[in-house]
Amino acid sequence: MLSSDSLRVSDYAPFGAMKPHTHEDASLGVVLDGDFVEQLGSSERRYERGCVTLSPAGVTHSQNFGAKGARQIIVKPESEWLVYLADSGVRLCDAPFTHGLQFFQLGCKLLGELHRDDAVASLARESILLEIVARFGRASVAGPAARPPAWLVVARDYLHAHMSTSFSMKDVARAAGRHEIHLAREFRRYFGLSVGSYLRQARTERAAYLLRNSRFSVTVIALRCGFASHAHLCRVFKAHFGVSPSHYRTRC
Fold first, then answer.
1. 64 contacts: CB under 8 Å, gap ≥ 6
2. Domains detected in the chain
3. Span 202-219, pLDDT tens digits
């Protein structure tokens, strides 16, 4: 069973930086929000939401965080996990990383379980972590996932920029310069969700951020994030995180 000191959530300030350093133990990171650039020797990598990174022990690295800072779940992996990854063909010495919506979704589930203390919470956390490790191993061996085309990134960014307002698929398609049918098909292909489901998830994640970092009432947060009412937010939030917004705020 994973020990309590092997798992933590780390928040990094906007435009912050960490000087070159090393760790005695390997670490697995799941980026939940924000972005940052990491320097590993002569190579430079950019990580954003949905990235999973594996930092081997003793490797010198530094980070520079973007305008939103970053939030990351950091795990000290069990030795058996590292053996599994190595046996699967993952080159641990290369500090492998991958990305995908699946990792963001699993990270959100893991974050929700961190705020629960019932009899099965520990088991739930471990099972989610094992799924992350298994998917990470498969993705690392298969190679990096395909990046969405630029026009699809524009569509995704439009959803985030307008999540507090009402808009149609035609509005999103117009912003991306594509037909709605083409947009709907390619959006699901690259992001694993329909446009509507992705927007609902983005609004829920934004609500969680405001619950953690503001004093707005749940009703105000609901309206700011595009939900129809307090009750609407509560229903969607509990389905996503497993707890009510008020309970989530108290735990945070």
1. 15, 16, 17, 36, 37, 39
2. 4-142 (2.60.120.280), 150-251 (1.10.10.60)
3. 898 889 889 988 999 999
Ranges assigned E (strand) in the chain = 7-12, 17-21, 27-40, 43-48, 51-55, 61-75, 97-99
CA 48/CA 63 separation, integer angstroms: 13
The predicted structure's pLDDT at residue 2? 57
Torsion angles phi and psi, residue 43, rounded to 5 = -100, 150
Residue 119 CA to residue 140 CA, distance in Å, equals 34
203 within 8 A of 239, measured Cβ to Cβ: no
Model-level pTM? Answer: 0.63
- Reported residue count of the chain is 252
**Stronger pLDDT, 75 or 250, i.e. the higher one:** 75
pLDDT at residue number 122: 87
